[in-house]
Amino acid sequence: MLSSSDLPETIAIFPLPGALLLPRARLPLHIFEPRYLAMIEDCMKTSQRLIGMIQPERGPSGGASGLCTIGCAGRLTQFSETEDGRYMVTLSGVSRFRMTREIDGFTPYRRCEVDWSGFERDLGKPEVDPDFNREPFMDALVRYFASQDLATDWDSLGEADDEMLVNALSMLCPFSPEDKQALLEAPSLTTRRETLITLIEYALHSGKDTGDFLQ
After folding, report:
1. Is 79 helix (H, G, I), strand (E, B) or coil?
2. 129 part of a folded domain
């Protein structure tokens, strides 16, 4: 497990719209672009093996205009290579960060200087949510999954602890990149759960995607 003293000042950045990584959660990724194959290879040569997941910002015309300020770094914990040279990897969430400056360099992928301060809780034990009332939450979740034509292992969800449940749903539900960013930036597990409930209830009330709700 990494400590604050292990966290580097510079990390590779993987801007992937809609992909959310949270501390102590796991994100599987399928890597096939040459620049990101190089990123994985370089990452495995470092002692921390960290990659920063971050959302691209959308400009007025809908195209990417930059990067969001806050992302989450994950440690490369699983790796396999397919016969045609693609990589199947898993990142285990370590800590959120604040991007301070993008570095111009010779790597085909993007790199940034980052600030880890303010996210010390991410390196600690799993969070708890003492006010979490699961019964109405799970009832709404069943209706939401039905409305989105989603399937899941309900027994596993019911047995998951508070943090694993809230974070897994935040990562897996088909929310917009803007909504995913709001979930990432939530200062506590309770706030993230409240945001998640708001998004689910809005989707159920409107019968539409949640894409523009938090914009």
Report:
1. strand
2. no
